[in-house]
Amino acid sequence: MQEVTKDDVLQPPMPSCWNEETKPHKFCPGCGHGIILKALGEAIDELGIKDKMVYGCDIGCSLLAWDFFAIDTVQTHHGRTTPVITGIKRANPEVIGVAYMGDGGGYAIGSQHLFNAAVRNEKITVILCNNCNYGMTGGQMAPTTLPGMKTETTPYGRDTEQTGQPTLGPEMVAAVAPAGAYVARGTIANVRQLKGFLKKALENQIAGNGFSFVEALASCPTNWRTNAKQTWEFVEKEMPQYFKVGELRTPQAKEG
């Protein structure tokens, strides 16, 4: 029997800005992070900005992207990705800075940084993966856990009387960011649309308009304890009922 080599197997296309040596990636099977990062990679390729970028990732599942791209990368402490990328951007305004994080890094310990970066209209791009739980530490309740959703710390379902309502991050950012900001929420259930939002967020930074923020609804079957059908139904049907998908803020047209 003839030996089958790697070159004989049909390989799925990967963004050229990916680091091929680290693929397959380190995320769990069915995890939404890889889909978000592929959409981001394709947007980077289409804009031709690989060599102009600095990519930052948070602690949590997002830290598994520390070697995901063949791009200058920094991995930060909990919730500090936004200020680190802000500092890099301020030190070198020509850099295209991307801060990538989970819902904990953006809406819990990192919420002060996200909020104030939006208020200051920092010219960076923040991308946040919303999978409704703390993934890396075992699936505990996160700021985005849906009402009634069961997690390791809400075994009977999230009680909003005790814990409040899930955080609506893009809505918060859109409410405080000044003119020039771009804010959207996408989903891995519509990758083409998600890539479009990510591309617009990067273009907004390149144009020097202001703060850009994209939340992406994503899957976590390992902690949700769902099969493929249940996972997709939750992402495609249940999450968007609370987290509305679409653009919330676009830069105002400049006069002149």
From TrEMBL:
Gene3D superfamilies: 3.40.50.970
Record keywords: Oxidoreductase
Keyword Protease: no
Annotated ranges, domain Thiamine pyrophosphate enzyme TPP-binding: 70-215
Short name of any one Pfam family annotated for the protein: TPP_enzyme_C
Alphabetical GO biological process terms: cellular respiration
GO MF terms held by the record: oxidoreductase activity, acting on the aldehyde or oxo group of donors, iron-sulfur protein as acceptor; thiamine pyrophosphate binding
UniProt keyword Phosphoprotein present: no
Protein name listed in UniProt: 2-oxoglutarate ferredoxin oxidoreductase subunit beta
Species name: Anaerospora hongkongensis
